Structures are given as C-alpha cells and as structure tokens.
C-alpha cells in the first residue's frame, strides 16, 4: 500500500516534474506460504494509514499539476513454474471534517458593461444588465453550488449561459513558483435568447476526483473558482469570476 503526492511546475511553456513525494509506504503479509484451495477464496485484511515522519495525509485529488493518489497493490508469489500475479487499484481517502461551523457567505452580483474588467473598448460593448446571487462561496464539497441568475435586459440576443468550474494550482519547487488555472467542468444552464426577468437556477455538483477541500501548504496550493459565462450571439463573452472555498463538514 502506498500514497504519493505528485507536483509539476510549469514555467516558460515547460513542465518541470518533481519526484513524487511518498506519504505512506506499507507492506503486510496477509497469507502465510502454502496452497490456496480450489474455488473462491476470500482473505480479509486491514491496515492503519500511518504517515511517514512529518508528512501529512491529504485528500485524494486528481489535478493537472498536483496529484494526490492512494494505491493498493496485491502481489501473489507463485512457484518457479508459474508467473507471479500482481494487481493494483486506487482507493479514495477523505480528510477529517472540520469542526468549526461553516459560514455560507452568500454573494449578490450585477453584471453590466461598466462592471467588466480587462475590457479595452468598453464603448463597443452592447448594453446589458444581468443580476443574480450565489447561495454560498464557502461551500460544502458534498453539496451542490446553488444560486440564481436573471437577465434583466440585453441589446444583443443571448446564445448560451454557462457555469465553468476552475481549479487554480500553485506549485513551488527548485525552479520557483507557478500558478495555473485549468477548467474542471463546464455546465450549460440556459440555451438561446432567454426570457428577460425570468429566474434561471444555478446548480453544480462538485466532481469527486477532481475537487478536494481547499488546500494551502508550504509547497503547493489547490484553490477553486467558478465563472458565470454569458455568450452573446455576436460571440461576445461576458465572464464573472467568483473564488470558492471548499470544505468537508
């Protein structure tokens, strides 16, 4: 049984791969040497998850530049005339729930041409007014992200409204630090030119393997954000970004 923390650092279009950090390594003998009877044989086993020295057990997470994985390998040694058998599988580890009560911290938002950032020619943008709210930005990872969005007005017809979940991984090693944001999933919550003034529900489930409670350590950070993306028929993209903190309770 083993657990590894794999960190990759991306700089100047190059990816530097650090040697995986071993969090756990354990070997146990579940059956003494001998013969296995014919038919189906079930062998129960158990083992504690004990970390090495000052290492910390993190929750299972599959990212792009940070990967935390726990695997179990079973080896069956056979006689000289038969080939040894080996099988590896991954098992999932959850961190301990936090004891402090989670404050949901809801947020209201209004999107207009004036509220957008990183816009070069603001005067060329069509007029629009979009309001909404997220029920929480401090989120329980086992519960969906919820809220509501209303298109009050828009000079240009709307093509699509989407929710984009983003992972933000910050990694550090001998080469320095790098911060990269990559998409986890994209969900369309409305298609076509929606009715103005009609509430549109926001609902997104956090995928298990690709999210984990927000992590901040000495060598790396794993954070999450959600983008509300409105696609207009003239292919203008309107994006509003919201940082999220994921917790397990």
TrEMBL record:
<dbReference type="GO" id="GO:0006886">
    <property type="term" value="P:intracellular protein transport"/>
</dbReference>
<dbReference type="InterPro" id="IPR028934">
    <property type="entry name" value="Vps26-related"/>
</dbReference>
<dbReference type="InterPro" id="IPR014752">
    <property type="entry name" value="Arrestin-like_C"/>
</dbReference>
<dbReference type="Pfam" id="PF03643">
    <property type="entry name" value="Vps26"/>
</dbReference>
<protein>
    <submittedName>
        <fullName>Vacuolar protein sorting-associated protein 26C isoform X4</fullName>
    </submittedName>
</protein>
<comment type="similarity">
    <text>Belongs to the VPS26 family.</text>
</comment>
